[in-house]
Structure formats: structure tokens, C-alpha cells
């Protein structure tokens, strides 16, 4: 539990504790001669019987002691008034209640209730009833995290005695301006207000000015607040805790005059409230927890820590801070418990400790770049992930006596992992660095360890998995993508009963880990990129059949058939790149992502695939599947984002069942035996970015109507039976985002579509900052692209990769110079057509061009000297044309061989053996 939560609990501990002063007149047992009021007892039993009880997420079944004939004042969670026997307190938090709370619930007959806690139950989306406003004596009301929905009723404002109100939810609850204003105006005694995750997007921030002056706690995390937050709130004399985090459109700033705030916890993470570090550190002298994740800083920041000497928890992550970490500021904070500097641009190395120092406090010596004196002994959480730190991990980190969570992932740290002397460690994340050597022995002794991630490093050695057997609290273990060789000898039982995530990808595993057979709580299992060469064993299909949601066995050598899949709640199944065969297995209806490409499955797609209504990604490519495509394939598009059936043996026509509102982004049917024409319903696929129908038997004219798909980036119609002229665009801005256009090996005729070339704006300038690939989330687009005359399977497509291939058609006429506007083009292929006229000299302006193929046409004139400016050009072919004159020389042109020019008897100069005559004039006519 974070220190932020602990601070909040300081204000709420007494809420249902009968020893607190506010509850001194009540008891869970009655004085002699008094029993629970019979009407209250009956109401409680009726309330209990209206719910089912689930212990899955509850601490206990609080109502198990509620039995007819027994004194209800002795029941768990029930508090009674001593003299009258009326129920005045009801605590069913984490009670496992499941069901609806209706407005006629017997709960609302408990008219004397002062304290009510229904938090962390499941009320199935019930609305918060206006009847809650009838508890006129209520001082504490907690309905948090219990799956309510709808609007918060204004009747809550009738609870004028409320001291604490917690209506926070996970989602689906709204609070409008009218109801909020009434709550603010009437609840004048309010000291604690928690509305986390309540949608308050319509509430004007100025409304908060009217909050009770007694307010100590204000939690407004992720409330969709927008506009300017009133700075006067920070002046409140009693306010101790305020959380405004995750309100991305909330603006404002701190007041600058000298003043002193009693705030102990402040969270402005992910807001647009301007943070002036100088004024904040000067005025907020009582702060214990400060969260400024992804904030807007003005002026100088971290120049000094001012009066924040008592800070316990500090989060400055994701603020683009750079340079070396100012260790002198942080390591001299004697009360510091939690420090998060992750997601910045910090560079440099960790300081070292001067072991000869006798100082009694943590100090940092700039001249020696090292710590002087003892390290901060209270440091419990240290997060430095997602920076650019280098060097080695210092040994003093391993001896922090209170350290529980350490994350150094995604840096550039090298050397060996240190030994950890402290046994308090629970979370250790060192993934995505350059760490090498063996896993240190001390890690196997950290018996409190729950999360261990060492993935994507250079760790090596043969590792007996049995070494982790002492870590019985492990919930997450990730050793993937190192140079380890794991074996599972001597492991016959499940040694890790809490294990939920296990990632052993690329660990040189040669067998299915048999010890997992009893892991009934396993949620995520990744064993990809290993060397398992075997049939899938029968026991494996029962592994975590009620709990498993993510399973990745891809890139192994699995053989045999799969059989019926038994996992009931599977979300993600990846069996790519194996040697599985037989009929296609169908995952459960809960599945979102299904990858089974690059296997040897045969036969038709079973009709049961139509039951996968939640499917978002379906990749069956590179198998031996046959038959016709089910009509339901089109209906999937309401949820389906990627449909990849490439390189199978499907025949028939493309289903015409794509419906309005679908979210299909990638449709790849390349290399099948599909015929007929394109279904017009493809036009409903407004999200389509990739359309690959190449290498089929489709017979149609050019689908001009596709130009209105504004997000289309890839159009591949290669090797079909398309025919006719392309014509002119039918819309004002056609194919604006198109980056890859392959119409080769068809029967298109007429002139090149110059009017289309004028609007290919994504090919004019597609420069990207950094490497970015097409696709999203779990799926990156793959396709076969012809590059420099070779068809290449590209597993990743850079977003700035652009190419046009119109080769092997019947295009005629001249090549327009308008093509030279496409300065981002990597490849251009117009070969094997009937093109005439000269090569445009402006082609020399396409500076990114890497291959240019104009061969097998009827081009005339010379090769423009401007083409020598194409310094990226590595493949050039103008063979079998009617070109004349000298071949340009210099730069890339000195690297091309004879076959680039063969069949042009009028050309001369290197690399040809024919030399050019001085001032040679081209002949007036030339016949090939």
C-alpha cells in the first residue's frame, strides 16, 4: 500500500471503530436487558437475503453470523445504539455482496443509521438510489468501488450531518452541476470528500469554492474536470490531502504571495495546472507526499528543495527532466520513503558510497561524485525506470535495509547484477538494460519477493529452475530474452501457488514445464521463441483452464494436432510459427486476439468461428486452409480490427457482409484463389489502412470508389485480373494517406493516372521522427513487397516506407513530371508497359529513391544527367527501351552493371563497351 493511501487512512481509521470518540455512545453488544430492535433485525436479514455472496474478492463473508433468532447487535459489521437497540452503524465493506440495490430495499428502513460502508461489493450497475438521502442522521457514507452506475442523486445533499462522503467508483457514475452545487451548499460539516473516477465533466471548477471550510480531504482523481481550478482551494485552513490527478484538461496555477499551507498530500499528476517549483517548495512546508507526474513546470525546477525536508513520498516521473540526477537533493531527505523519477531523460551514473566516511547523515559530495556517510535507511520505494542511466548498479542499493520496490528497467545499465543483502525486497524490475553475467545467488534467497523481471538483458548460464523454489510468494516472474538455458529437473510439484504471470520466452527451453500442471491461478504464460519440439500434451490443455487469459507458445517447433481448446476465459492465444497440423482449433468466445499463422493446418474454417463475437485480431495466414470464406467473416468487422488470411487455399468470392460502423483496419487476403469482383461493402470499412488482395483471381475494373477511404495507406491488387483504364479521381482528395500502391501484373491500360499522383500527399513528405511501424498494440502489419525486383516478406513496415509498382500492365503514353513531387518515394516501378516519351529530368529531385525500374517500355531520348543526384539509388533499370546518348557517370551511376542498360543500342559510355564519340548527336530515329 502506497504512503499516499496511508496518509488518507490517518483521517479515516476511526470511521467504523467503536473505540473512537465519535462512537462512544454505541456498541456492537448491548447492555443487560436490551436487545436489537426487531424491525432492524428483520430489515438486515431481508437485506442479506437479497444478495448472493462471493468470497473471490472479499476479505470475509461478513454476513455469515447474521442468523434469525440471534441478537443482531452481535452480528459482524453491525453497531447498535446502547439504549434503544437501533442499528446506527453498518460496515459491509469487502463483504462479497452481489446483486442489485433497489429503491424498495429494506436497507432504507434503517432510519437511525449514522455510518454506512458498502464499499468494494458488486451491485451489478445499480443506480445510487435517492433513498440514500433519507438517512438524516448519517455522518459517514461510503459507497465506493461497488459497481454503481448512473447519476449521483441530488438527494445526497439532504445528509446535512455528513462528515465523510466517499462515492468513488471504477467508472459509469456521473455527477452533474446541479447535484454537486447542492452537495457543496448543504454539507457544511464535510471533512472528507472522495469522488475519484466520478464523471464530473459538466461541473464548473469554480463550484469548489463553496466547499466546507472544515474540509480536510479532497480526492478528485480522474473526474474529467476541465477549466481553471480555483487557487483559493490551496489556501483552505484545514485541507490536508488533495488529489486532482488524471484530470488532463484541468488548468490553473498556485498563488504566488508568501503564505503557508497545511497540506500534507498533493497530487497534480497528469493535469495542466502550472507548477512553480520555487513557490511550491517555499509555501507547502507540511508536505509529506507530493505527486507531480507529467505536469507543467514553469520557471526553474529542482533548483532547490526549499522547505520540503519532511517529504516522505515524491513522484516527479514523466516530466522530460534531463541531465544528471540531482542526488544531493534527494539523498539528504532523511524522511524520504518513496522516490519516483521514472520516465524522464536523466543520464549519468549512480554515485558511489565513500566507505571510509564516518558521517552520521546522508550527504553528497559534488567534488567526489559520491555519497558521504550512510545511505538513506528509510527508502522503501525507488523508481528510476525509462531513463538513460548508464554504468553499473551500485552495491549500496543492495544494502538498503527497508527497500521493498526497486525499478531500474529501460535504462542502459551494464555489468553484473549486485547481491541484495536486504530481505525486505518485494518488487525488483531490472529488465531492458545491458546487464550480464549470472543471476546473483542472493535473489534466490529473497523470500518476500513477489515480482521479479530480469527480461531483455544479457544474462547467461545454465539455470535450474528449482533455484527459485524458496520464492513461494512469487506472483510475476519474467526471465525472457536473455542468454539463459533453463531446465526443470527435480520439479514435480507447483512450488509457486501465487504465480499469475510467467514469461520464459527465449530461454532455450526444450520441454513443456511439467511443474505447471497444477497452476490453477495462472493468468499469463509466455513460452515463445524456445526449442520445444513435441506434441502439445493432453495435460497442457487443462492448465489453468479457469484462470488462463494470455498464452503464447509461438516460435517453437510444436507438432501434431491441437484438439479442442478448454480454456474458458482466454483473451490472447498465440501459436504462430510452429509445425502444428490438422483441423483449425477454435478458441473460446472470450478471445480477443488469435494468432495461428505459419503452421500446417488444413481443411475448412469450422463454422464455430462465427461465435467469436469479441474477436479483434484473427491471423490465420501461411497455412493450408481451404474452402470458401464464411459470410460471418464480414460480420466480425464490428469488433475485428485485423483479418489476415494470406497464403492459404481459399476460393470463391470475398464476403459482401461488411457492415456500417465496422472497425476493420487491416484486410489481407493475398495469395489465395479468390475470384469475382470486389464487394461494394468494403466502402463501409472507414477505418481501413491496409487492403492487400494480391495474387488471387479477382476480375474487376479499378475500384476508384476506394479513394474515399481516407485512412487507407496500403493498396495491393498485384497479380489479379483487373483491367481497363484507371481514369480520374471521383473525389476531391483521393488516397491522401496512401504509402504503398501495387497494381502490378494486371491488365490495366490507358494513360498513367496523373491526377491521382497529384494527390498522394503522404508520398510527398513522410519524414518521421524516430522509427515507427505500421500497426498497433499486439499486431504489426506484415506484407510481401517487391523491392529492387525481389519479393520480400516484411515483418515490420516503417511508416515512411513508400513505393509505387505499376509494372507488367498495358499503360501507354508519357511519364508525367508530376511524379517528381513524390519526394519520399523509396521505389518506383513502371517496367513492362507501353510507355513512351523521355524520362523526366525532374526525377533527379526524388532524393529518397532507392530503386527505379523503367525497363521494357518504349522510352526515348537520353538518360537525364540529373539522375546522378540520386545518391540513395542502388537499383536502376532502363533496359529494353529506345534510349540514346551517354550514360551519366559519378556517384551511384558508377556502380550499375551492363544489365541496367541492355537493349538500348543507342546508349554509350561506361559500363557499356561502346564508347561515346565527342559531341555525339543522337540519331533522328531509332528502332529497337
From TrEMBL:
The record's keywords, sorted A to Z, are:
Cell membrane, Glycoprotein, Leucine-rich repeat, Membrane, Receptor, Repeat, Signal, Transmembrane, Transmembrane helix
- Tell me the ranges covered by the Leucine-rich repeat-containing N-terminal plant-type domain, including all copies: 38-80
Protein source organism: Prunus mume (Japanese apricot)
Question: Belongs to which family?
Answer: Belongs to the RLP family.
* Gene name tied to this protein: LOC103326754
Q: What protein name applies here?
A: Receptor-like protein 12
Give the bilayer topology: Single-pass type I membrane protein
* Top-level taxonomic group: Eukaryota
- InterPro entries in the record, alphabetically? Leu-rich_rpt, Leu-rich_rpt_typical-subtyp, LRR_dom_sf, LRR_N_plant-typ, RLP23-like
A Pfam family annotated for this UniProt entry? LRR_8
Localization terms from the record: Cell membrane
SUPFAM superfamilies to which the protein is assigned, alphabetical: L domain-like, RNI-like
Query: What residue range is the signal peptide?
Result: 1-16
Amino acid at each position: 500500500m502506497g504512503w499516499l493511501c496511508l496518509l488518507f487512512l490517518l483521517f479515516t481509521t476511526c470511521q467504523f471503530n467503536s473505540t473512537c470518540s465519535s462512537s462512544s455512545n454505541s456498541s456492537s453488544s448491548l447492555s443487560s436487558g436490551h436487545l436489537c430492535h426487531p424491525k432492524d433485525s428483520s430489515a438486515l436479514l431481508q437485506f442479506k437475503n437479497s444478495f448472493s455472496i462471493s468470497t473471490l474478492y472479499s476479505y470475509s463473508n461478513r454476513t455469515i453470523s447474521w442468523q434469525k433468532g440471534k441478537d443482531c447487535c452481535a452480528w459482524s459489521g453491525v453497531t447498535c445504539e446502547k439504549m434503544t437497540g437501533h442499528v446506527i452503524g453498518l460496515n459491509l465493506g469487502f463483504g462479497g455482496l452481489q446483486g442489485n440495490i433497489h429503491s424498495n430495499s429494506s436497507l432504507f428502513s434503517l432510519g437511525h443509521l449514522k455510518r454506512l460502508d458498502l464499499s468494494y461489493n458488486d451491485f451489478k450497475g445499480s443506480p445510487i438510489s435517492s433513498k440514500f438521502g433519507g438517512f438524516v442522521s448519517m455522518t459517514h457514507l461510503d459507497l465506493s468501488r461497488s459497481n454503481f452506475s448512473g447519476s449521483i442523486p441530488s438527494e445526497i445533499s439532504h445528509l446535512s450531518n455528513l462528515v465523510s462522503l466517499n462515492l468513488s467508483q471504477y467508472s459509469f457514475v456521473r455527477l452533474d452541476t446541479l447535484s454537486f452545487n447542492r452537495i457543496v451548499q448543504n454539507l457544511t460539516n464535510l471533512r472528507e470528500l472522495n469522488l475519484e473516477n466520478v464523471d464530473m465533466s459538466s461541473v464548473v471548477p469554480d463550484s469548489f469554492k463553496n466547499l466546507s471550510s472544515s474540509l480536510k480531504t479532497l480526492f478528485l482523481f480522474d473526474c474529467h474536470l476541465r477549466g481553471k481550478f480555483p487557487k483559493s482551494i490551496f489556501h483552505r485552513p484545514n485541507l490536508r490531502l488533495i488529489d486532482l490527478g488524471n484530470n488532463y484538461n484541468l488548468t490553473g496555477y498556485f498563488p504566488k504571495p508568501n503564505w503557508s499551507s497545511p497540506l500534507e498530500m498533493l497530487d497534480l499528476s497528469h493535469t495542466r495546472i502550472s507548477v512553480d517549483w520555487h513557490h511550491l517548495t517555499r509555501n507547502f512546508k507540511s508536505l509529506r507526499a507530493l505527486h507531480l507526474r507529467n505536469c507543467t513546470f514553469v520557471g526553474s525546477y529542482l533548483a532547490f528543495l526549499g522547505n520540503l525536508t519532511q517529504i516522505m513520498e515524491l513522484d516527479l516521473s514523466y516530466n522530460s527532466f534531463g541531465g544528471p540526477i540531482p542526488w544531493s537533493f534527494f539523498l539528504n531527505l532523511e524522511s524520504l520513503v518513496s522516490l519516483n523519477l521514472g520516465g524522464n531523460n536523466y543520464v549519468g551514473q549512480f554515485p558511489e558510497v565513500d566507505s571510509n566516511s564516518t558521517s552520521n547523515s546522508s550527504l553528497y559530495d559534488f567534488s567526489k561524485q559520491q555519497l558521504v556517510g550512510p545511505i538513506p535507511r528509510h527508502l522503501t520505494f525507488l523508481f528510476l525506470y525509462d531513463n538513460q542511466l548508464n554504468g553499473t548498479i551500485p552495491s549500496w542499493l543492495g544494502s538498503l535495509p527497508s527497500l521493498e520496490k526497486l525499478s531500474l528497467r529501460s535504462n542502459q545499465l551494464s555489468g553484473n547484477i549486485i547481491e541484495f543483502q536486504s530481505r525486505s525486497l518485494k518488487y525488483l524490475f531490472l529488465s531492458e538494460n545491458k546487464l550480464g553475467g549470472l543471476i546473483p545467488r542472493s535473489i534466490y534467497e529473497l523470500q518476500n519477493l513477489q515480482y521479479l523481471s530480469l527480461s531483455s538483458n544479457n544474462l547467461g548460464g545454465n539455470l535450474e529452475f528449482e533455484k527459485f523454489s524458496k520464492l513461494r510468494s512469487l506472483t510475476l516472474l519474467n526471465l525472457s530474452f536473455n542468454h539463459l538455458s533453463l531446465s526443470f529437473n527435480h520439479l514435480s510439484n507447483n512450488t509457486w501457488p501465487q504465480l499469475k504471470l510467467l514469461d520464459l520466452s527465449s530461454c532455450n527451453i526444450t520441454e513443456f514445464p511439467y511443474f505447471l500442471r497444477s497452476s490453477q491461478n495462472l493468468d499469463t504464460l509466455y513460452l515463445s521463441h524456445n526449442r520445444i519440439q513435441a506434441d502439445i500434451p493432453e495435460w497442457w490443455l487443462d492448465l489453468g483452464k479457469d484462470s488462463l487469459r494470455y498464452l503464447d507458445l509461438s516460435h517453437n517447433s510444436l507438432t501434431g494436432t491441437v484438439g479442442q481448446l478448454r480454456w474458458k476465459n482466454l483473451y490472447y492465444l498465440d501459436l504462430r510459427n510452429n509445425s502444428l497440423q490438422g483441423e483449425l482449433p477454435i478458441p473460446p468466445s472470450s478471445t480477443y486476439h488469435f494468432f495461428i499463422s505459419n503452421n500446417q493446418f488444413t481443411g475448412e474454417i469450422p463454422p464455430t468461428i462465427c461465435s467469436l463475437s469479441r474477436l479483434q485480431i484473427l491471423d490465420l495466414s501461411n497455412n493450408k486452409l481451404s474452402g470458401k470464406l464464411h459470410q460471418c467473416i464480414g460480420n466480425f468487422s464490428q469488433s475485428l480490427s485485423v483479418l489476415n488470411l494470406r497464403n492459404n487455399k481459399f476460393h470463391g468470392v470475398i464476403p459482401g457482409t461488411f457492415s456500417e460502423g465496422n472497425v476493420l483496419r487491416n484486410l489481407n487476403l493475398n495469395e489465395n484463389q479468390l475470384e469475382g469482383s470486389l464487394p461494394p461493402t468494403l466502402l463501409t470499412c472507414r477505418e481501413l489502412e491496409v487492403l492487400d488482395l494480391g495474387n488471387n483471381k479477382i476480375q474487376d475494373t479499378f475500384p476508384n470508389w476506394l479513394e474515399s477511404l481516407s485512412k487507407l495507406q496500403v493498396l495491393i491488387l498485384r497479380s489479379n485480373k483487373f483491367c481497363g483504364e484507371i481514369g480520374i479521381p471521383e473525389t476531391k482528395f483521393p488516397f491522401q494517406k496512401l504509402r504503398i500502391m501495387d497494381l502490378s501484373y494486371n491488365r490495366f491500360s490507358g494513360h498513367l493516372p496523373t491526377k491521382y499522383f497529384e494527390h498522394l500527399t503522404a508520398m510527398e513528405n513522410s519524414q518521421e521522427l524516430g522509427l515507427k511501424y505500421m500497426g498497433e498494440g499486439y499486431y504489426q502489419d506484415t506484407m510481401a513487397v517487391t523491392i529492387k525486383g525481389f519479393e520480400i516478406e516484411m515483418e515490420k513496415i516503417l511508416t515512411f516506407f513508400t513505393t509505387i509498382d505499376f509494372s507488367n500492365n498495358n499503360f501507354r503514353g508519357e511519364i508525367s513530371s508530376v511524379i517528381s513531387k513524390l519526394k519520399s518515394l523509396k521505389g518506383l516501378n513502371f517496367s513492362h508497359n507501353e510507355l513512351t516519351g523521355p524520362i523526366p529530368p525532374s526525377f533527379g529531385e526524388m532524393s529518397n529513391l532507392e530503386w527505379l525500374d523503367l525497363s521494357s517500355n518504349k522510352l526515348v531520348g537520353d538518360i537525364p544527367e540529373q539522375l546522378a543526384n540520386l545518391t540513395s539509388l542502388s537499383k536502376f533499370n532502363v533496359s529494353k527501351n529506345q534510349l540514346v546518348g551517354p550514360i551519366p557517370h559519378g556517384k551511384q551511376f558508377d556502380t550499375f552493371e551492363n544489365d541496367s542498360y541492355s537493349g538500348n543500342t543507342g546508349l554509350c559510355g561506361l559500363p557499356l563497351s561502346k564508347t561515346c564519340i565527342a559531341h555525339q548527336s543522337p540519331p533522328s530515329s531509332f528502332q529497337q
